[in-house]
Design goal:
single chain; alpha/beta; Uracil-DNA Glycosylase, subunit E; four-stranded mixed sheet; two-stranded antiparallel ribbon; 13 helices; about 45% helix; about 10% strand; binds uracil
């Protein structure tokens, strides 16, 4: 009986950490692949912050297994980069990218975000990079992860219908996400994951040079605008995006995420109002 209980607990653990589907006939030890892909890390400076937040370490531990008390966290050789190293590495790679092609290659080569190890694909962008509107979602979902393109699942189909409502399609918008890798089980991305990838997002905006940015959903709006205000208060209002590099300020119109609209169809009324605000502004560009 206790065996069955243990098996059920183990299955629940797998579901909780995002192992919610079989992607191949044979199991793959992604932790070993990730360790091989990650560059060797320098020894930690005396007194430096721990390589990883304790919460992150906790979240990877199976239930019922606690860490030995007072054991210092010693980074394993080839372990994923710590948060500040990851951010610095992303910034250097992002700055060095002189074109979207180079930026995409830099994102694909980046090993500082642990989400990469569990994702099937890097999802960079879709649509027209010369378009005046840049839509920014949160992170790829299951369909996007499989196909390597943003917004191709149910929320993408709704997004296409919303765009069509104001005469737009993927040839007249450019679409990307804050994160290029799917969080396991579609969980919310952590602040550390977002911070590690943010320099790529900022460079992405600089290289595209959109006339308007439309963040889709709260994570995207809060990240791009560096605010904590909820999306229901920000949606439909104009804000300014000012890049860290001090470049050109871009008008930003946050909107509700299509996945939220699928769960809350009554909110489509507000989404339609926001689309009309966007259409009106487009006429002045
Ligand atoms: N949700 C997002 O935020 N982005 C996608 O690409 C798909 C779903």
């Amino acid at each position: 009986m206790s065996d069955v209980y243990d098996i059920l607990e183990a299955l629940r653990w797998h579901l909780d950490v995002g192992c919610d589907e079989a992607v191949a006939d044979e199991p793959t030890d992604w932790t070993r692949l990730a360790a091989r892909a990650a560059p060797a890390r320098p020894p930690a400076a005396p007194g430096a912050a721990p390589a990883r937040p304790a919460r992150d370490a906790e979240s990877r531990r199976p239930p019922g297994r606690s860490e030995a008390p007072n054991r210092p966290e010693v980074p394993e050789a080839g372990a994923p980069l710590g948060a500040s190293e990851a951010g610095a590495s992303a910034r250097a790679r992002a700055r060095a990218a002189a074109s979207l092609e180079e930026l995409e290659a830099a994102v694909r080569a980046f090993d500082g975000c642990p989400l990469k190890a569990t994702a099937m694909n890097t999802v960079f962008a879709d649509g027209n990079p010369k378009a005046r509107i840049m839509l920014v979602g949160e992170a790829p979902g299951e369909d996007e992860d499989r196909q390597g393109k943003p917004f191709v699942g149910a929320s993408g189909r709704l997004l296409d219908r919303m765009l069509a409502g104001i005469g737009l399609d993927r040839s007249t918008v450019y679409i990307t996400n804050i994160l290029p890798w799917r969080p396991p089980g579609n969980r919310n991305p952590t602040a550390a994951e977002i911070a590690a990838c943010l320099p790529f997002m900022e460079r992405h905006v600089e290289l595209v040079g959109p006339g308007i940015i439309v963040p889709l959903g709260g994570t995207s709006a809060k990240t791009l605008l560096n605010r904590t205000t909820g999306i229901t208060r920000m949606r439909g209002q104009w804000f300014d995006y000012t890049p860290e590099s001090g470049g050109r300020t871009v008008p930003v119109l946050p909107m509700l995420h299509p996945a939220y609209l699928l769960r809350n169809p009554a909110a489509k009324r507000e989404a339609w109002r926001d689309l009309l605000v966007l259409r009106e502004r487009l006429q002045t560009l």
